[in-house]
C-alpha cells in the first residue's frame, strides 16, 4: 500500500494515473451494499408484486450496466475492458442481520485483465443496484436507506490480494 495519493501530482493537481508501463494482470474485486426497508416492502419485492416489475432482476441488470459505465461517472477512473460483472441481490428478512434490519443485500463481482484495478466498478455496481431498488420501490417506501457499500476483496496487480477483515469494521 502506498502512503501517497496517486491521483494527485506534485503540484497538488488531480490527474489520471499513467498505467502505460504496468503489466496486464488478472484482477477481480468484490463489493457489497445493503438497502434497508420496511418488511412490507421486502415482501412486495420478494413476491414479485411491485408495480414496476421484477425489482431484483432490474437491479442486477442496472448493476452490470453501471460497472461498464464507471469511467464515465468517476473522473479519474480508467475505462476498462471488463471481462466479468456479476450482481446478486438477496432478500434479508427479520432476524438475519445482527442489527435487525430487513432489506436487500447486494454483492457484486467484477473482473478484468488489465493494467489497473476494478474496485471502482464493483463498488459502482453495488451502489447502482441499491439505487435501482430504491427507484423501483420509492412509491411505497421513501424511507429506504442505502448503507454498507464497501469493498470486500480485491486481487491482482502489484499489491495482490486484499480482503476486508474484522479490524476494518
TrEMBL record:
<feature type="active site">
    <location>
        <position position="135"/>
    </location>
</feature>
<dbReference type="InterPro" id="IPR002820">
    <property type="entry name" value="Mopterin_CF_biosynth-C_dom"/>
</dbReference>
<feature type="binding site">
    <location>
        <begin position="76"/>
        <end position="78"/>
    </location>
    <ligand>
        <name>substrate</name>
    </ligand>
</feature>
<dbReference type="Pfam" id="PF01967">
    <property type="entry name" value="MoaC"/>
</dbReference>
<keyword id="KW-0501">Molybdenum cofactor biosynthesis</keyword>
<dbReference type="GO" id="GO:0061799">
    <property type="term" value="F:cyclic pyranopterin monophosphate synthase activity"/>
</dbReference>
<comment type="subunit">
    <text>Homohexamer; trimer of dimers.</text>
</comment>
<dbReference type="GO" id="GO:0006777">
    <property type="term" value="P:Mo-molybdopterin cofactor biosynthetic process"/>
</dbReference>
<comment type="pathway">
    <text>Cofactor biosynthesis; molybdopterin biosynthesis.</text>
</comment>
<keyword id="KW-0456">Lyase</keyword>
<comment type="similarity">
    <text>Belongs to the MoaC family.</text>
</comment>
<dbReference type="InterPro" id="IPR050105">
    <property type="entry name" value="MoCo_biosynth_MoaA/MoaC"/>
</dbReference>
<feature type="binding site">
    <location>
        <begin position="120"/>
        <end position="121"/>
    </location>
    <ligand>
        <name>substrate</name>
    </ligand>
</feature>
<dbReference type="InterPro" id="IPR023045">
    <property type="entry name" value="MoaC"/>
</dbReference>
<feature type="domain" description="Molybdopterin cofactor biosynthesis C (MoaC)">
    <location>
        <begin position="16"/>
        <end position="157"/>
    </location>
</feature>
<dbReference type="InterPro" id="IPR036522">
    <property type="entry name" value="MoaC_sf"/>
</dbReference>
<dbReference type="InterPro" id="IPR047594">
    <property type="entry name" value="MoaC_bact/euk"/>
</dbReference>
<protein>
    <recommendedName>
        <fullName>Cyclic pyranopterin monophosphate synthase</fullName>
        <ecNumber>4.6.1.17</ecNumber>
    </recommendedName>
</protein>
<comment type="function">
    <text>Catalyzes the conversion of (8S)-3',8-cyclo-7,8-dihydroguanosine 5'-triphosphate to cyclic pyranopterin monophosphate (cPMP).</text>
</comment>
Amino acid at each position: 500500500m502506498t502512503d501517497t495519493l496517486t491521483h494527485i501530482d506534485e503540484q497538488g493537481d488531480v490527474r489520471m494515473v499513467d498505467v502505460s508501463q504496468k503489466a496486464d494482470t488478472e484482477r477481480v474485486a468484490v463489493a457489497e451494499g445493503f438497502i434497508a426497508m420496511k418488511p412490507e416492502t421486502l415482501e412486495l419485492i420478494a413476491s414479485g408484486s411491485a408495480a414496476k416489475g421484477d425489482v431484483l432482476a432490474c437491479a442486477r441488470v442496472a448493476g452490470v450496466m453501471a460497472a461498464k459505465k464507471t469511467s464515465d461517472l468517476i473522473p479519474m477512473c480508467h475505462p476498462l475492458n471488463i471481462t466479468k460483472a456479476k450482481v446478486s441481490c438477496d432478500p434479508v428478512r427479520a432476524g438475519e442481520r445482527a442489527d435487525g434490519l430487513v432489506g436487500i443485500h447486494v454483492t457484486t463481482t467484477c473482473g478484468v485483465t488489465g493494467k489497473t484495478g476494478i474496485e471502482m466498478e464493483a463498488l459502482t455496481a453495488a451502489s447502482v443496484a441499491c439505487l435501482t431498488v430504491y427507484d423501483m420501490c420509492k412509491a411505497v417506501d421513501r424511507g429506504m436507506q442505502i448503507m454498507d457499500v464497501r469493498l470486500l476483496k480485491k486481487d491482482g496487480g502489484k499489491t495482490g490480494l486484499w480482503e476486508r477483515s474484522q479490524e476494518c469494521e
